[in-house]
Model the fold of this input.
Amino acid sequence: MADITVRPMTSHDAGRVLAIYQAGLDAGNASFETTAPTWTAFDAAKLPDHRLVAVDADDIVLGWVAVAPTSSRPVYAGVVEHSVYVDPAAQGRGVARLLLDLLIASTEAAGIWTIQSGVFPENTASLTLHQRAGFRIIGTRERVGRHHGRWRDVVLLERRSPLI
Done:
């Protein structure tokens, strides 16, 4: 991990961020989405203060994490949904955990009290990662959407800040 650093995501990272996103989508257990959005759509959907990238010594993006608001209603201003993706070649090196830990610190510093995520039950690595980072399983939304022609369940996870 000494050769990995985390910094804020910038528009200069767009190509790598979207390529890593697409690789996760192509693997089939990351999202109902099948195609990564344009950078303009991605940028508009994610909160600017909580977008991080993990980079190697050559500043090559290895993974990213970002959050989106769950609602425009003021009462939910402290609740976000996050995504974390790691380049397949960098998986198993602790990149996702590092990103998630720093995202938690960033959101708590901003007064965000809940981070949510939905994970396919087949994505056991992501479920384990989240539980180790303090997320708890809220429940399973059964057959909530179709993905590649079949109904998929989604496990709902949340992390409530003990500080806020």
Observations:
- Helices lie at 14-27, 39-45, 95-109, 124-132.
- The chain has four helices and seven strands.
- The mean pLDDT is 96.
- The chain has one domain: 5-160.
